[in-house]
Amino acid sequence: MKVLISGGAGFIGQHLARALTGSGHEVVALDNLHPQVHLDPEGARAAFPGGVLVADVADEAAWSAIEGIDAVVHLAAETGTGQSMYEQDRYRRVNVEGTRLAGAFAAEHGITLVALSSRAVYGDGTPDRPSFEDDPHHPVSFYGETKSLGEAALEDAAQRVGITTIRPQNVIGPGQALHNPYTGVLAAFLAMLREGRPLTVYGDGTQTRDFIHVQDLAALIAWAVEHPAEPGAQRILNAGTGTRTTLLELAAYAIEGSPHDDVPIEHLDVHRAGDIDHACASLDRLTEVGAPMPEWTSREAVVDFIRWSWDKPGAASQAWDLALEELAQRGLTDGTGSAG
């Protein structure tokens, strides 16, 4: 099969491309090589094991120029929760219109589509119940809203071709964009550890997340390509480990993966617009459909990320400080902002 991967030169796309080519498939990427994601755009292009069409996923003309594709994986997205609150046009254009065009392309050519959504569509969870695929959407960030609208934009196409929509939890692993302050808290922890700074945790650190290794997500996406959904309603699948990790546990795992032993942890009294307290995926449906289950625990995934990233360029805590400062200036944070 020849598989088109939108956003294919990025973090998840590179892992997926290797998984697919390892199974005998051919891959091609549609990617704009945006500098917020790619510190070395040409290096990312060269690393992709197939051709790379440098174009905008929300440009209909870009899709019209593509031929000879047997399946589409739509990964391209704007993903910064905080940034989405003040760059709404950009996020709407890529995450909604780009997704609609991916669906229209798949429907026009009669080929299967696997689209990446987000756990952000569920909104804030609870500490004692995971999110299930049939739960209602209650996004609390504009990013989550665009991912919910992106799913809705695929409904017409799903009546004509099989569409699998995957909602990953927090994805971590080798290859993340370490310079991007919207990558996530773990890259921020990496930067602080490398600079010998205390780890800064927002709030009391009891917030929970579900961290999935990128290789496990790539394996699930590849399975969905090879086991396409039937036309009709979208086949929705969660992706995660099904276990919770508190931010304090995350900090401890990050320290474990570093050369350091005794690193102080500071708590910052701040809450950013769009942040949630709890997230965890139910994996019941993965079991029901026979999809591959995750092999990495969250702890193993965190340690692997820190050790791989330790000597890589890009991570600097100043970028996260500036991103938080910008949110504060735009009135998108609350709390005292004081450390304790």
Q: Segments where pLDDT lies below 50 for 5+ residues?
A: none
CATH topology of the largest domain: Rossmann fold
Query: What is the CATH homologous superfamily assignment of the largest domain?
Result: NAD(P)-binding Rossmann-like Domain
How do the SSEs run, as a string of H and E? EHEHEHEHHEHHEEHEEEHEEHEEHHHE
Strand fraction: 15-25%
Q: Quaternary state, please?
A: single chain
User: How many beta-strand segments?
Assistant: 15
User: Separation of termini?
Assistant: 55 Å
Task: Please tell me the overall pLDDT.
Answer: 94
Largest sheet: 7 strands, parallel
Radius of gyration over alpha carbons? 19 Å
Helix-residue proportion: 25-40%
Organism: Nocardioides currus
Protein name: NAD(P)-dependent oxidoreductase
InterPro entries: Epimerase_deHydtase (IPR001509), Lipid_A_modif_metabolic_enz (IPR050177), NAD(P)-bd_dom_sf (IPR036291)
Pfam family, one: Epimerase
Any overview of this molecule?
With 340 residues, the protein is α/β, with parallel strands linked by helices. It has 2 domains: 2-171 and 211-239, NAD(P)-binding Rossmann-like Domain (Rossmann fold); 178-209 and 246-279 and 298-334, UDP-galactose 4-epimerase, domain 1 (Alpha-Beta Complex), CATH 3.90.25. Helix content is 38%, strand content 17%. The chain has 13 helices and 15 strands. The strands form 5 sheets. Strands 3-2-1-4-5-6-11 form a 7-stranded parallel β-sheet, sandwiched between helices. Strand 2 (26-31), helix 2 and strand 3 form a beta-alpha-beta unit. Helix 1 packs across helix 9 (214-226), helix 5 (88-109) runs parallel beside helix 6 and helix 10 packs across helix 12. The longest helix has 22 residues, at 88-109. The model has no long low-confidence stretch (mean pLDDT 94). InterPro entries: Epimerase_deHydtase (IPR001509), Lipid_A_modif_metabolic_enz (IPR050177), NAD(P)-bd_dom_sf (IPR036291). It comes from Nocardioides currus. This is NAD(P)-dependent oxidoreductase.
